[in-house]
Amino acid sequence: MSAVLIKSALKSGLCLPIASVSPVRRLSNVIFTKNSVKNSSFIQTYRYYATSKDDKNSNKSILDDDLLSKAGVDTDEQPQANKQQESEEKPKDEFEQTRSRRNNTKSTIDKKKEFYSRMFWFSFLAANLGFVGYMARDYDPIEEPEIYKESDNGMSPSLIFKRLRTRLLGVSDVFSEPAFTDLLPPQPAGPYAQPMTLVLELDDLLVHSAWNYKKGWQTAKRPGLDYFLGYLSQYYEIVIFSRSSMAFAENTVAKLDPYHAFISYSLFKEVCRSKDGKLIKDLSLLNRDLSKVVIIDPDQDCYSMQPENAIPVAKWNGKKDDGLIKLIPFLEYLATSHTKDVRDVLKSFDDKDHIPEEFAIRENKMRQDWQEAQARKKSNDFFSTILGIPPSLRGAKKMPLDQIREQGQRNYLHMYNYLKENGEKLLKEEQEKTKELMADQKLTLGKIVNEGMPTAEDIARAAAEKQAQDAAAAASK
Fold first, then answer.
1. Tell me, what DSSP letter sits at residue 55?
2. Averaged over 235-251, what is the pLDDT?
3. Which in 65, 103, 208, 322 has the greatest CB count within 10 A?
């Protein structure tokens, strides 16, 4: 019935009372004309309101394509219209808009910036490639005689990398050279000046540092260190030359010698040379005669420039040992035997890694020779008695080396007891003199950087001058 009514209404163009069609929702005053029916929006609207409530498929309209085709409506226009409407309503992709805007609205300035940026990076890359190629070139025997090796020239990747690495490290070494050519002041003259200089490493020789999760960094002092420094300080000018930075090692050195009685000077990593990525302690910069300098260091790279002055030792791992005590007899003999050149004595040892053990063998041989000589002298005591020669002139009762050792032990005990009683007093006096010297000289930051802090000799000299001035002022009154 509804289909017949709709069809007759469409043909006649009259108003269709939708209320008479029970399955269709109420629509009032809907006029069907041939022109209006052809309008796709009207068809869509009508299809929406003409949906049956009772129909299981709620989107199915009673105006099917069959009915509309009989009414003269072109059903193919509706999907095309919907597609056009959806395409108009759908927003464009923002990335597509950005690309189109970037391509279409790029200004001349932006194009120039992009061009110059590309030129800069290409030039930067070309310069780096040229620098690498120049640094990796073959060695020239005339321009680079110190590093020239004919076997290192060639185009193999390993040789190219080796030449590049050597030259790059050489460039960086320029910035790691010591700032001063004389690391120590001139050696003071006088009867109490030590004739020899003993250079000692701090880490893994005198102390050992270790870190754990519970207590953090801990530093252990090697057994016999106090006796080692105190005993040898009467024969040597002791210099601590550490490969650690001054910021970390200075406090440790100060604790080893709180009264400034044994250690003459301390040097640190900042004055080391750097060669091929290794730290080197150049003894020629100490302002001392190398024939009177001995260095003890567990790292062979540190004394690689003067290996003939070195006593090689193993690294101390923090356990109890007597490594320092074993070195004392040889160092004592070296300083008291009026050695002209320590390098000749060190060269005489077959195995420099075991100098204390080999010297002990030599000492026993010297003791045996001395005892044999004393035995021969005793056989002539009868004639010495007849001639009236006193016993004190007939021969020594003790070996000279033993006499020197006993005298050295007495001196050490005297020094130890004196510091124990007067160490704090001497330290306070030194601090007061330092303050007075700084006040008199008006030390500034620039002066400290250029000339350094005043040494113990400067303080003593300034104190003597001030004392002389005070005495002269008192005499004039």
1. -
2. 92
3. 208
Contact (CB, 8 A) for 313 and 205: yes
Interacting residues of 51 by C-beta distance below 8 A, sequence separation 6+: 25, 58, 59, 60, 61, 62
Contact in structure between 63 and 44 (CB atoms under 8 Å) = no
pLDDT score recorded for residue 286: 93
Residues in a beta bridge with 219: 209
Which residues in 345-355 are b (16+ Cβ under 10 Å) and which e?
bbeeeeebeeb
Are 446 and 177 a contacting pair, CB within 8 Å?
no
Longest dimension (CA), the chain: 177
Determine the 3-state secondary structure of 298 from DSSP.
coil
Task: Name the residue among 337, 362, 364, 367 with its Cα closest to residue 351.
Answer: 362
Structure tokens at 456: 């113990």
How deeply is 440 buried, as exposed, middle or buried, from its count of CB atoms within 10 A (0-12, 13-18, 19+)?
exposed
Q: Which residues contact 446 (CB under 8 A, 6 or more apart)?
A: none
Whether 183 contacts 285, CB under 8 Å:
yes
| Domains of the chain, each with CATH number or no CATH | 2-89 (no CATH), 108-176 (no CATH), 196-348 (3.40.50.1000), 400-476 (no CATH)
- The SS3 call for residue 302 is helix
Structure tokens at 29: 């005053």
- Of 76-85, 113-122, 138-147, which gets the smallest average pLDDT? 76-85
Element (H, E) at 139: none
CA pair distance 291, 306, nearest whole angstrom = 11
What's the CA gap between 207 and 244, in Å, rounded?
12
* Separation of CA 112 from chain center: 43
Distance CA 429, CA 461 (A): 14
Own/partner contacts of 39-47, CB < 8 Å, gap of 24 or more, are: 40/77, 40/78, 40/81, 40/82, 41/81, 43/68, 43/73, 43/78, 44/78, 44/82
User: How much is the average pLDDT of 321-332?
Assistant: 95
If we measure between CA atoms, which residue out of 167, 99, 180 comes closest to residue 133?
A: 167
